[in-house]
């Protein structure tokens, strides 16, 4: 078949409206808020990853957990391990950053949000995009988005570690405000991870005969219910992890000092 | 309660045309299609508009109202203020035949390119035995009324005419998902979804879901699950290895 360009005769058979959109509502608000929210998270994440006040007994900041080098304080190490040794002198958070960052970057919800708000492809429904060509996720680099399920496996690990951190805090300081902030954060992170579309597919989405796999079908039904709230969980966990991380750093720096901190 | 509503309606043939202003009577309880019909009856007898059931079930009166793809028969006038000018244009992705009527044959062409339901050779008609839970995913997609608003709003072809040759649009990628999830369909649809029907072009911005008048979760329940099935086939070495070892 012949390729048709934007100026092809076929294109000119469409209604020749010379405006980008005829929408009269505030279609720009959602992408603008998304842009602001994600940019804020990136700036905070950049600051947090290089900040050294990430541990105060019994709290460890989520952006720096698990701490895997000998540079980490004894109590901050996961199960007391330091498998990376002392050769790694950069901030410990950099070692594990790739897993949660990759999980969110390739997440189907976040893809929608940044394709709309950063790449304007499209900025909103029925609003023209500025790009002349579009190949989507058919070729490099965006075809790499298909590795999302591998990041999901990594994110399960991170969710388990953050839950372990929160439970440790609960054992050592049950009345601490930080404990409860870490617990809520761990719960939201785990729920967001389980609500992932890849998780839904892995539980039973790939099957065509649910009736032959009743347990997997029940798991799929549960994940499907969570999946319907994936966007809400994505934002809730994004803010909870920032709030929990900031809180622990403020306690570690001595900025927050009240008795139940 | 009636009032004089301000309308701007696209008039023209084959792409050439203009927005024309009209002032039309609007009565309580009416929808946009009612007003378009009054316009036809009183001021513009040659105004072309496709319609049929007036109940949101035939998918004929797809148009763009204030820039948003909507069914004319399901868009209540009470959702607009009385002093608002309502702009009505044809679907922007398809060629215009006349005024609000577009040529949607692209969609029929894409429908023909998808192989039909393919049961196993040893199962005869009347021998199919399926449980409800095995088919209810596909049944959601059968609610489609073929208004083609999902294909109209999809930026892959709305903004890039050149992609029409190799992209089936959400409507027909959903059809592929429906068949691929069917317990008795044995055709291989994963490779063709990606290679022939352009599933990889979808960047899941969910506009198809937003405009669907049947509220089908096209992206979450059809396109993303289909993308994940393609990942199983083409991009996941562990699944490939598992299939080899267990001869699935």
From TrEMBL, chain B:
Keyword Transmembrane set for record: no
Signal sequence bounds: none
InterPro entries: 2Fe-2S_ferredoxin-like_sf, 2Fe-2S_ferredoxin-type, 2Fe2S_fd_BS, 4Fe4S_Fe-S-bd, Beta-grasp_dom_sf, Helical_ferredxn, SDH/FRD_Iron-Sulfur, Succ_DH/fum_Rdtase_Fe-S
Domain 2Fe-2S ferredoxin-type, first and last residues per copy: 5-92
Cofactors: [2Fe-2S] cluster; [4Fe-4S] cluster; [3Fe-4S] cluster
Listed GO biological process terms: respiratory electron transport chain; tricarboxylic acid cycle
One protein family per Pfam: Fer2_3
Record GO cellular component, one term: plasma membrane
Pathway the protein contributes to: Carbohydrate metabolism; tricarboxylic acid cycle
UniProt GO MF annotations: 2 iron, 2 sulfur cluster binding; 4 iron, 4 sulfur cluster binding; electron transfer activity; metal ion binding; oxidoreductase activity
Keywords annotated in UniProt: 2Fe-2S, 4Fe-4S, Iron, Iron-sulfur, Metal-binding, Oxidoreductase
Keyword Transmembrane helix set for record: no
Similarity remark: Belongs to the succinate dehydrogenase/fumarate reductase iron-sulfur protein family.
Name the UniProt record assigns to this protein: Succinate dehydrogenase/fumarate reductase iron-sulfur subunit
The organism of origin for this protein: Herbidospora galbida
Source species taxonomy: Bacteria, Bacillati, Actinomycetota, Actinomycetes, Streptosporangiales
